[in-house]
Protein backbone atom coordinates (compact mmCIF):
# COMPACT_ATOMS: atom_id res chain seq x y z
CA UNK A 1 0.00 0.00 0.00
CA UNK A 2 1.31 3.48 -0.94
CA UNK A 3 4.73 2.05 -1.84
CA UNK A 4 5.88 5.14 -3.75
CA UNK A 5 4.90 7.45 -0.93
CA UNK A 6 6.63 5.15 1.59
CA UNK A 7 9.85 5.42 -0.42
CA UNK A 8 9.51 9.21 -0.58
CA UNK A 9 8.86 9.48 3.18
CA UNK A 10 11.68 7.01 3.92
CA UNK A 11 14.16 9.12 1.92
CA UNK A 12 12.94 12.31 3.61
CA UNK A 13 13.42 10.71 7.04
CA UNK A 14 16.91 9.50 6.11
CA UNK A 15 17.90 13.00 5.00
CA UNK A 16 17.34 14.39 8.53
CA UNK A 17 20.52 12.96 10.11
CA UNK A 18 22.49 13.78 6.93
CA UNK A 19 21.42 17.42 7.23
CA UNK A 20 22.34 17.54 10.90
CA UNK A 21 18.72 18.05 11.95
CA UNK A 22 18.34 15.10 14.31
CA UNK A 23 20.22 13.59 17.21
CA UNK A 24 19.41 9.95 18.09
CA UNK A 25 15.75 9.34 17.08
CA UNK A 26 14.45 12.86 17.81
CA UNK A 27 12.66 13.59 14.61
CA UNK A 28 10.09 12.33 12.15
CA UNK A 29 8.74 12.99 8.68
CA UNK A 30 5.35 12.08 7.24
CA UNK A 31 3.78 12.44 3.80
CA UNK A 32 0.14 12.28 2.75
CA UNK A 33 -1.86 10.92 -0.19
CA UNK A 34 -4.70 13.45 -0.20
CA UNK A 35 -6.90 11.43 -2.59
CA UNK A 36 -6.86 8.41 -0.34
CA UNK A 37 -6.83 10.47 2.87
CA UNK A 38 -3.94 8.40 4.25
CA UNK A 39 -0.52 9.41 5.45
CA UNK A 40 2.73 7.52 5.93
CA UNK A 41 4.89 8.18 8.99
CA UNK A 42 8.07 6.96 10.67
CA UNK A 43 7.60 4.27 13.32
CA UNK A 44 8.24 5.30 16.92
CA UNK A 45 11.76 5.13 18.38
CA UNK A 46 13.47 3.33 15.46
CA UNK A 47 17.10 4.27 14.77
CA UNK A 48 17.68 5.89 11.40
CA UNK A 49 20.37 3.35 10.43
CA UNK A 50 17.90 0.51 11.02
CA UNK A 51 14.91 2.11 9.33
CA UNK A 52 13.47 0.43 6.18
CA UNK A 53 10.71 1.71 3.88
CA UNK A 54 8.57 -1.29 4.86
CA UNK A 55 8.70 -0.19 8.54
CA UNK A 56 6.71 2.95 7.79
CA UNK A 57 3.20 3.04 9.17
CA UNK A 58 0.06 4.06 7.22
CA UNK A 59 -2.42 6.17 9.20
CA UNK A 60 -5.83 7.67 8.31
CA UNK A 61 -6.99 11.22 9.07
CA UNK A 62 -8.63 10.06 12.29
CA UNK A 63 -5.15 9.00 13.45
CA UNK A 64 -5.92 5.26 13.19
CA UNK A 65 -3.27 2.83 11.94
CA UNK A 66 -4.36 1.32 8.62
CA UNK A 67 -1.22 -0.69 7.84
CA UNK A 68 2.06 -1.48 9.61
CA UNK A 69 3.47 -3.79 12.26
CA UNK A 70 5.10 -1.09 14.34
CA UNK A 71 3.68 1.72 16.43
CA UNK A 72 3.66 5.00 14.50
CA UNK A 73 5.66 7.98 15.78
CA UNK A 74 4.39 9.20 19.14
CA UNK A 75 3.89 12.58 17.39
CA UNK A 76 1.30 11.08 15.00
CA UNK A 77 -1.64 12.99 16.59
CA UNK A 78 0.23 16.27 15.89
CA UNK A 79 0.68 15.31 12.22
CA UNK A 80 -3.00 14.23 12.04
CA UNK A 81 -4.16 17.57 13.45
CA UNK A 82 -1.99 19.57 11.05
CA UNK A 83 -3.09 17.55 7.97
CA UNK A 84 -6.74 18.09 8.95
CA UNK A 85 -6.39 21.85 9.49
CA UNK A 86 -3.82 22.76 6.82
CA UNK A 87 -5.50 21.06 3.81
CA UNK A 88 -2.88 22.01 1.20
CA UNK A 89 0.21 20.52 2.86
CA UNK A 90 1.69 17.24 1.62
CA UNK A 91 4.47 16.57 4.14
CA UNK A 92 5.38 17.41 7.74
CA UNK A 93 8.71 17.34 9.58
CA UNK A 94 9.34 17.56 13.30
CA UNK A 95 12.85 17.77 14.75
CA UNK A 96 14.62 18.99 17.87
CA UNK A 97 17.25 20.85 15.83
CA UNK A 98 19.18 22.97 18.36
CA UNK A 99 18.98 26.51 16.95
CA UNK A 100 15.24 26.33 16.32
CA UNK A 101 14.80 24.73 19.77
CA UNK A 102 16.75 27.66 21.26
CA UNK A 103 14.12 30.11 19.98
CA UNK A 104 11.33 27.75 21.08
CA UNK A 105 12.86 27.56 24.57
CA UNK A 106 13.03 31.35 24.71
CA UNK A 107 9.41 31.52 23.39
CA UNK A 108 10.57 33.85 20.62
CA UNK A 109 9.51 34.01 16.98
CA UNK A 110 12.35 33.52 14.50
CA UNK A 111 12.43 37.04 13.04
CA UNK A 112 12.75 37.71 9.32
CA UNK A 113 16.19 39.35 9.38
CA UNK A 114 17.89 38.29 6.15
CA UNK A 115 17.13 37.37 2.56
CA UNK A 116 17.72 33.62 3.12
CA UNK A 117 14.75 33.79 5.48
CA UNK A 118 12.66 35.79 2.99
CA UNK A 119 13.39 33.31 0.19
CA UNK A 120 11.40 30.66 2.11
CA UNK A 121 9.35 32.34 4.84
CA UNK A 122 7.23 35.40 4.10
CA UNK A 123 7.66 36.87 7.61
CA UNK A 124 8.61 35.80 11.13
CA UNK A 125 8.26 32.10 11.93
CA UNK A 126 5.89 32.18 14.92
CA UNK A 127 6.45 30.63 18.34
CA UNK A 128 3.12 29.07 19.28
CA UNK A 129 2.07 29.06 22.93
CA UNK A 130 3.45 26.33 25.17
CA UNK A 131 0.82 23.82 26.27
CA UNK A 132 -0.98 24.27 29.58
CA UNK A 133 -1.08 21.56 32.25
CA UNK A 134 -4.65 20.70 31.20
CA UNK A 135 -3.73 20.51 27.50
CA UNK A 136 -0.79 18.23 28.30
CA UNK A 137 -2.90 15.92 30.44
CA UNK A 138 -5.86 15.85 28.05
CA UNK A 139 -4.14 15.12 24.72
CA UNK A 140 -0.48 16.16 24.62
CA UNK A 141 0.37 15.44 20.98
CA UNK A 142 -3.02 16.46 19.55
CA UNK A 143 -2.92 19.76 21.43
CA UNK A 144 0.61 20.35 20.11
CA UNK A 145 -0.96 20.53 16.64
CA UNK A 146 -3.80 22.64 18.01
CA UNK A 147 -1.52 25.35 19.47
CA UNK A 148 0.20 25.72 16.07
CA UNK A 149 -3.09 26.06 14.15
CA UNK A 150 -4.50 28.44 16.78
CA UNK A 151 -1.44 30.71 16.44
CA UNK A 152 -1.76 30.86 12.65
CA UNK A 153 -5.49 31.65 12.93
CA UNK A 154 -5.11 34.27 15.67
CA UNK A 155 -2.29 36.07 13.88
CA UNK A 156 -3.84 35.66 10.41
CA UNK A 157 -0.75 33.86 9.06
CA UNK A 158 -0.96 31.98 5.75
CA UNK A 159 0.45 28.49 6.45
CA UNK A 160 1.67 28.18 2.86
CA UNK A 161 3.59 31.48 2.99
CA UNK A 162 5.20 30.64 6.35
CA UNK A 163 5.52 26.84 6.25
CA UNK A 164 6.90 26.30 9.78
CA UNK A 165 6.25 27.05 13.44
CA UNK A 166 7.88 26.61 16.80
CA UNK A 167 6.02 25.12 19.72
CA UNK A 168 7.28 27.09 22.71
CA UNK A 169 9.46 25.12 25.14
CA UNK A 170 9.50 22.21 22.64
CA UNK A 171 10.73 22.69 19.10
CA UNK A 172 10.09 23.23 15.40
CA UNK A 173 7.54 21.77 12.99
CA UNK A 174 7.83 22.46 9.27
CA UNK A 175 5.68 21.43 6.34
CA UNK A 176 5.42 21.79 2.58
CA UNK A 177 3.77 20.44 -0.57
CA UNK A 178 5.94 17.28 -0.38
CA UNK A 179 7.92 15.50 2.38
CA UNK A 180 11.20 16.58 0.71
CA UNK A 181 10.10 20.22 0.60
CA UNK A 182 9.10 20.02 4.26
CA UNK A 183 12.63 18.78 5.09
CA UNK A 184 14.08 21.66 3.07
CA UNK A 185 11.95 24.17 4.99
CA UNK A 186 13.02 22.55 8.27
CA UNK A 187 16.70 23.01 7.36
CA UNK A 188 16.20 26.62 6.24
CA UNK A 189 14.54 27.35 9.58
CA UNK A 190 17.50 25.86 11.45
CA UNK A 191 20.01 27.90 9.40
CA UNK A 192 18.19 31.22 9.79
CA UNK A 193 17.60 30.62 13.52
CA UNK A 194 21.35 30.28 14.00
CA UNK A 195 22.03 33.37 11.90
CA UNK A 196 19.38 35.37 13.76
CA UNK A 197 20.81 34.32 17.12
CA UNK A 198 24.21 35.72 16.19
CA UNK A 199 22.79 38.90 14.68
CA UNK A 200 20.65 39.43 17.79
CA UNK A 201 23.77 39.31 19.98
CA UNK A 202 25.07 42.31 18.07
CA UNK A 203 21.93 44.39 17.59
CA UNK A 204 18.19 44.33 17.19
CA UNK A 205 18.07 47.96 16.02
CA UNK A 206 16.60 48.21 12.54
CA UNK A 207 17.48 44.55 11.93
CA UNK A 208 14.14 43.27 10.69
CA UNK A 209 13.84 43.18 6.91
CA UNK A 210 11.93 46.10 5.45
CA UNK A 211 8.72 45.01 3.70
CA UNK A 212 10.13 45.82 0.22
CA UNK A 213 13.10 43.46 0.68
CA UNK A 214 10.91 40.72 2.18
CA UNK A 215 8.56 41.07 -0.82
CA UNK A 216 11.42 41.09 -3.32
CA UNK A 217 12.98 37.85 -2.08
CA UNK A 218 9.80 35.96 -1.29
CA UNK A 219 8.17 36.73 -4.64
CA UNK A 220 11.37 35.99 -6.58
CA UNK A 221 10.73 32.34 -5.72
CA UNK A 222 6.96 32.12 -5.12
CA UNK A 223 3.80 33.00 -7.03
CA UNK A 224 2.98 33.92 -10.60
CA UNK A 225 5.92 36.29 -11.12
CA UNK A 226 8.66 34.08 -9.65
CA UNK A 227 11.82 34.17 -11.72
CA UNK A 228 14.48 32.44 -9.59
CA UNK A 229 16.01 29.19 -10.93
CA UNK A 230 15.70 27.42 -14.26
CA UNK A 231 11.98 26.71 -14.53
CA UNK A 232 11.28 29.58 -16.88
CA UNK A 233 14.61 29.32 -18.77
CA UNK A 234 13.49 26.17 -20.63
CA UNK A 235 10.17 27.59 -21.67
CA UNK A 236 11.86 30.79 -22.86
CA UNK A 237 14.42 28.98 -25.03
CA UNK A 238 11.69 26.60 -26.16
CA UNK A 239 9.52 29.52 -27.16
CA UNK A 240 12.39 31.02 -29.19
CA UNK A 241 12.63 27.86 -31.30
CA UNK A 242 8.96 27.78 -32.10
ZN1 LIG B 1 9.37 16.73 19.82
Automatic annotation (TrEMBL):
Metal-binding recorded as keyword: yes
NCBIfam families: PRK08193.1 (NF006047)
One family name in Pfam for this protein: Aldolase_II
Annotated protein name in UniProt: L-ribulose-5-phosphate 4-epimerase
Organism, scientific name: Secundilactobacillus odoratitofui DSM 19909 = JCM 15043
Molecular function via GO: aldehyde-lyase activity; L-ribulose-phosphate 4-epimerase activity; metal ion binding
Alphabetical UniProt keywords: Arabinose catabolism, Carbohydrate metabolism, Isomerase, Metal-binding, Zinc
Catalyzed reaction equations: L-ribulose 5-phosphate = D-xylulose 5-phosphate
Gene Ontology CC terms, in alphabetical order: cytosol
EC number(s) reported in the record: 5.1.3.4
Amino acid sequence: MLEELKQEVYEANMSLPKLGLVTFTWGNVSGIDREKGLFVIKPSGVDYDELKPSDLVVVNLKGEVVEGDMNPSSDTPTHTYLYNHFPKIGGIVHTHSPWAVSFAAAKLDVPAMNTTHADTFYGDVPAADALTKEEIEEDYEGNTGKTIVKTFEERGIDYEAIPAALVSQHGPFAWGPTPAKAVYNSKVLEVVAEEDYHAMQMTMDNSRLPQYLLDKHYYRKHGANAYYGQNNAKSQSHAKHE
